């Protein structure tokens, strides 16, 4: 099951990567970077899954009657949130979707302080926005704000 999800993420990321090559000029750099980052993270997850299966192969042989190793619920939730983030990034915009995405992930992973989660998600969003727009002169998805 984990391999099916990994392949699905590769397909979706590859599609977004392919579509981003159609953008003119520097407009495709950010989508290519995001797609590349997702592919890279997915590759790390694939490596960890294979490594974990090799390490546990002796235990699996001893306990064949037990259920096979499955990805955790956490993996599925974060994957779905990430796919929604990518899908909503262009129509709604980076400045709106990113803090919501980051806060959702932080709360799901156990962030307890609402104030800290809010500050971190807003601060990180604006740091990334400043980095891309001011330093790299790359436009990021504006969505409904059209700044």
Automatic annotation (TrEMBL):
<dbReference type="InterPro" id="IPR009936">
    <property type="entry name" value="DUF1468"/>
</dbReference>
<feature type="transmembrane region" description="Helical">
    <location>
        <begin position="116"/>
        <end position="138"/>
    </location>
</feature>
<dbReference type="Pfam" id="PF07331">
    <property type="entry name" value="TctB"/>
</dbReference>
<keyword id="KW-0812">Transmembrane</keyword>
<keyword id="KW-0472">Membrane</keyword>
<feature type="domain" description="DUF1468">
    <location>
        <begin position="7"/>
        <end position="141"/>
    </location>
</feature>
<feature type="transmembrane region" description="Helical">
    <location>
        <begin position="75"/>
        <end position="96"/>
    </location>
</feature>
<feature type="transmembrane region" description="Helical">
    <location>
        <begin position="29"/>
        <end position="47"/>
    </location>
</feature>
<keyword id="KW-1133">Transmembrane helix</keyword>
<protein>
    <submittedName>
        <fullName>Tripartite tricarboxylate transporter TctB family protein</fullName>
    </submittedName>
</protein>
């Amino acid at each position: 099951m984990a391999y099916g999800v990994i392949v699905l993420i590769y397909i979706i990321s590859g599609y977004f990567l392919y579509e981003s090559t159609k953008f003119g000029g520097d407009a495709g750099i950010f989508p290519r970077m995001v797609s590349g980052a997702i592919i890279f993270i997915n590759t790390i997850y694939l490596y960890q899954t294979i490594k974990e299966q090799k390490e546990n192969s002796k235990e699996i042989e001893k306990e064949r009657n037990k259920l096979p190793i499955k990805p955790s619920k956490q993996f599925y939730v974060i994957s779905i949130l990430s796919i929604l983030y990518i899908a909503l990034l262009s129509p709604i915009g980076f400045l709106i979707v990113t803090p919501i995405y980051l806060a959702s992930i932080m709360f799901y992973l156990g962030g307890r302080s609402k104030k800290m989660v809010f500050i971190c998600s807003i601060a990180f969003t604006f740091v990334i926005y400043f980095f891309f727009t001011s330093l790299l002169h790359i436009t990021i998805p504006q969505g409904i704000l059209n700044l």
